[in-house]
Amino acid sequence: MNKELLNVAVEEDIDDEAAAQLKAAIASFGQDAEFHEIPRRGPQASLLLLGFTSIALVFGGAFVKKLGDKAAEDCYPHIKNALLDVCKKYFGKDAKYRSLIVTSSEKKSPGTKYSLILAIYCVGVHNERVKFLYVTDWSHEEFEEATCAYIKSMAEFVNGNGGAVSKLISDNPSRMQPYLIAWDSSEKKLVRVNALPVGVDI
Question: 63-85, pLDDT tens digit by residue?
Fold first, then answer.
């Protein structure tokens, strides 16, 4: 992968229609984006939210900087279109597909409300790695609201313009990366997510 571009990595067992829609929509970015089909790994319990998802949108620094302050306005419609079929088939209470976490013991299998199928990734000016999470049972409207918030805040963060992501990181720096960020659909704001809290599901 060219880490300066928008890279979209999709595991080979992802729904064919969803993968095709992703690939077609990403093509609208031309040479600024690359599509990668990767071997199936499946969600690993040992990695859980810190690992790569089955569908990963990795926003490179040069790609985001090229968009500049208009990142959300210019980029969001294409990303929204790219993720439309993913949202329909993998999210919501009536999703067609559900994740199966690979673990050596059923007792060790952790629970999480966050999707192991899809996430957005980026890197800040000080090399802080960030992963934006999606809640599995979000409605279509909540999914789109979160995507818009992620792209807008990511542009601020990657371009060194402060914003909510920078504040969340500076308020509680950590050696464990990526930093996990999620949209709180009730409070209408971004929040930090603990990767492996003790005694509670995430």
Answer: 888 776 555 567 888 888 899 88
Under 8 Å between Cβ of 181 and 193:
yes
**Mapped to the 3 state alphabet, what secondary structure does the chain carry?**
CCCCCEEEEEECCCCHHHHHHHHHHHHHHHHHEEEEEECCCCCECCCHHHCCCCEEEEECHHHHHHHHHHHHHHHHHHHHHHHHHHHHHHCCCCCCCCCCCECCCHHHCCCCCEEEEEEEEEECCCCCEEEEEEECCCCHHHHHHHHHHHHHHHHHHHCCCCCHHHHHHHHCCCCCCCEEEEEECCCCEEEECCCCCCCCCC
Asked whether 91 and 143 are in contact (CB, 8 A), the reply is yes
